[in-house]
């Protein structure tokens, strides 16, 4: 079984094209591997081909103007949802299913759908009685899932082209950035204005994310701002900046009137925390990101106890593992989640599709007398 970077090197010979080869590897790493949530050398060709053959969702991006929780809340309407109820053990058999929580509570059901990240199963966070069969254990261990790091930065003003929403950056600190403008809201009951409606999200995966996670969070934001300054500095803009630092009616001053939001959000960093030099914020033409930065945070998904990583990627020697992971246990415990998608689709569509598939599997049984 070939890794993707080995497959590329089959067609490469030593000689004067080495600089081009290095550029090609950088581009593949930034455009392809980072999008899959891993490093280029971790991608398995067979699952990459499987993913390409099974992608049916088109190329259109869906950009939300509100948090993802809005989607979850909409889907959950009419459902009874228990939060902070961590499942520690799943007991299943002909009698049904018993879910044991970490604090000793028990829920009894006829059927259960398990949709936790594959890392939770790999780390043994949830135990099963009877134990999982060997085929499923092998499938769990063969599916790869790395860490992902997101750098969220809020700005008081836009300094990029209006129609820009996604940029892939070759051989940069942030391999990819997403850009969103949120509508103004009036639901701030504390009397303070929103931090900034212009949002840039930097996305890192695989080895890049592992390296970034070892840095202090303030340093991660500083390097991200430096990259944005380099990308967008000295770009001709419609706004005219005067010496007082005004742009579009917004005063650029990094040291005064900074709302203290450090207590509102976990590890939220303002301009003071990041220690942006004064000379940077006084140069909105050459360093627009540093000048307009209002605050941000670094989200390290590996540290989220119920996630422990980003999402699965096309893995080496994992062909067929996703089918095996999706197999029900004694027609009582059913599996969903993007790791169980046969099309190797590590996206929200896969989570929704596999949830519907698991629900359909239960409804296809003779459950009329139970549900």
Summarize the structure.
The protein folds into three domains: 4-43, no CATH class; 83-145 and 310-363, FAD/NAD(P)-binding domain, CATH 3.50.50; 148-303, no CATH class.
Considering the chains and any ligands shown, give keywords for the structure.
371 residues; alpha+beta; FAD/NAD(P)-binding domain; 3 domains; 6-stranded antiparallel β-sheet; 13 helices; elongated; FAD/NAD-bd_sf
Describe the structure.
The chain is an alpha+beta fold and 371 residues long. The chain has 3 domains: 4-43, no CATH class; 83-145 and 310-363, FAD/NAD(P)-binding domain (3-Layer(bba) Sandwich); 148-303, no CATH class. The protein has helices spanning 4-10, 18-36, 45-54, 69-75, 118-122, 134-142, 206-212, 217-232, 271-274, 278-281, 288-292, 321-326, 348-363; strands at 87-93, 96-101, 106-109, 112-114, 127-129, 144-145, 148-155, 166-168, 176-181, 198-205, 246-247, 250-251, 269-270, 293-300, 312-313, 333-335. The strands form 5 sheets. The chain has a 6-stranded antiparallel beta sheet. The two termini are 45 Å apart. Residues 10-18, 188-193 and 235-265 have low confidence and may be disordered. Pfam families: Amino_oxidase (PF01593). Belongs to the flavin monoamine oxidase family.
């Amino acid at each position: 079984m070939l890794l993707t970077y080995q497959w590329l090197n089959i067609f490469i010979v030593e000689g004067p094209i080495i600089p081009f080869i290095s550029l090609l590897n950088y581009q593949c790493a930034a455009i392809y591997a980072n999008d899959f949530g891993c490093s280029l050398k971790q991608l398995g060709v067979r699952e990459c081909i499987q993913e390409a053959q099974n992608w049916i969702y088109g190329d259109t991006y869906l950009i939300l103007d509100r948090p993802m929780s809005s989607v979850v809340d909409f889907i959950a309407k009419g459902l009874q949802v228990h939060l902070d109820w961590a499942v520690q053990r799943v007991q299943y058999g002909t009698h049904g299913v018993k879910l044991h929580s970490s604090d000793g509570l028990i829920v009894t059901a006829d059927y259960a759908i398990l949709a936790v990240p594959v890392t939770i199963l790999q780390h043994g966070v949830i135990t099963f009685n009877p134990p999982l069969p060997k085929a499923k254990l092998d499938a769990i261990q063969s599916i790869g899932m790395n860490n992902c790091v997101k750098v969220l930065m809020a700005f008081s003003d836009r300094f990029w082209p209006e129609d820009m929403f996604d940029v892939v950056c070759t051989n940069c600190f942030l391999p990819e950035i997403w850009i969103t403008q949120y509508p103004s809201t009036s639901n701030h009951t504390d009397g303070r204005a929103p931090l900034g409606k212009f949002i840039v999200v930097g996305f890192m995966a695989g080895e890049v994310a592992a390296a970034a996670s070892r840095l202090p969070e303030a340093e991660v934001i500083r390097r991200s701002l430096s990259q944005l300054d380099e990308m967008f500095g000295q770009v001709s803009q419609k706004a005219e900046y005067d010496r007082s630092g005004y742009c579009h009616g917004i005063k650029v001053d990094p040291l005064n009137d900074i709302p203290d939001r450090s207590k509102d959000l976990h590890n939220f960093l303002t301009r003071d925390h990041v220690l942006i030099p004064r000379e940077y914020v006084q140069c909105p033409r050459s360093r627009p990101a540093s000048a307009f930065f209002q605050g941000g945070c670094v989200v390290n998904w590996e540290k989220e106890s119920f996630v422990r990583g980003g999402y699965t990627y096309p893995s080496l020697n994992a062909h067929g593992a996703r089918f095996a992971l999706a197999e029900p246990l004694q027609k009582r415990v059913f599996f969903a989640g993007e790791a169980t998608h046969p099309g190797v689709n590590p996206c929200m569509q896969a989570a929704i599709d596999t949830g519907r598939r698991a629900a359909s599997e239960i409804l296809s049984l003779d459950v009329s007398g139970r549900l």
